[in-house]
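QUALITY CONTROL LOG
STEP: pairwise intake check
CHECKER ROLE: data steward
CRITERIA: each record must contain a sequence immediately followed by its structure tokens, with no blank fields

ENTRY 1 OF 2
RESULT FIELD BELOW
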Amino acid sequence: GALFATRTVAFTTDGIFGTGTITAPTAGTYYFEILVGTSTVTANNKVTGLASPCGAATESATVTPAAPTLTTHASATVPTVPGKVKDTVTITGGDAPHGSVVVKVFKNATCTGTAFASETVSFTSDGTFATATVTAPTAGTYYFEILVGTSTVTANNKVTGLASPCGAATESATVKPPAKLTLTPGYWKNHPVKAHTQPGTRTFLPLKLGTYTVSTFTQAHAVLADLACGTTGINCLAGQLLAAELNVANGTDSCIATVIATANALLTSVTYHGPATYPVSKSVAAEAKTLANKLSIYNSDNSGTCTALGI
């Protein structure tokens, strides 16, 4: 039949000489043959044909099929109800593998019973592929499972089932309940106890402002009543910080946590002990006012999120 490839090996001495590498585009066994060697030409060598027959023990090389593998990563693209979840499938190690996997979504950690949703991911190469997004109408953790993947179909890939078990570290996505709306410092200042469906300030005390403990509504009222930033910004920072801590305790989005931590560190550094005059440097005053402004936006946004802050 037709040769797959041919190479000439020239030599001028005894020794070991190679053909150079030959690309083997498909899996299988490749057989080598030397029918007639170029005769030696120097006077001191017998004129002879150098040959190696097809089928000689050392004259074949096997190229094994590629063995594709699968990794997955589930995520909540919209993390609050009504949420959206999806799974991302990454195929590696294949040789243009063609196939598909079926991703099932469950609402229990053992992936038993009827699947909540099922999505098919098709592929024609190595790469990363995502399921369509699945609407998650209730809060909770959604678990993903790939029991048996459609085997790769090209001749150069090992026929294999691609799977990802229920409970794999990257195969779950959590959707949280809708965030509660933030309440303003004015609300917390004027409502020591529950008002209609909203909680009272006393419900969440004590809270810390730096090292200062707000244990009573009288203390809270004093802090929340002093929101004028003035020269130093310390008292308005404390008031906005207390309101933010009350909001988070009430179940609003904790996206503001980093700002809260930074504000508490600043109040600790100036030994905050309640509404008072605090002589601080211009740089500390500027930072206090910046933090107070961020907390004010959070407390007044009424969305329960940090969207307005870009967080």
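ENTRY 2 OF 2
RESULT FIELD BELOW
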Amino acid sequence: MNENTSSDQQFLVGFSIIIIFLSILTLALIGIARAIVPPNNLKAELANSPEKIAARLQSVSQVMLDGESAVGSASTSSKSTDVVLAVYLNGSKDPDALYKSACAVCHSGKLPNIPQLGDKAMWKPRIAKGKDQLLKNAISGINAMPARGGTTMSDEQLKAVVQYMISKSQ
């Protein structure tokens, strides 16, 4: 029994040393974290003011009635220009306007792994699948892209904008 008691005591001593070491390490890391980021600055950075919350929840579009120029209107800045978003419900088939109204949101190069308009390397394998497949993907959606690009564009409008994007990316 002495052997078991001695073995148990050795285990408890070793285990206690490990617990004490981990406790001291934890306190040291907490101290280092507080030295790097003082608590007052952390609270200011994490503050959720009503203005910050409203800015994060702001809609990227506005609905306008028939006869007005656009259904959605918001601006996001790119490198040196502003891209104005407007989804046309008036049946416009102007591919440039359709692209700018909806497709540019994702295909302007601001989102990762989404082919940017004019990026021949990213578009090449997609174009190789054919225009019909690209149109089908635009209509029904693919991966993170929602059906119709999240718009109410008709099949003809989508066809025009898909052809436009292909022509700019070959």
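INTAKE CHECK: passed for both entries
DESCRIPTIVE NOTE, ENTRY 2: The longest strand covers residues 74-77.
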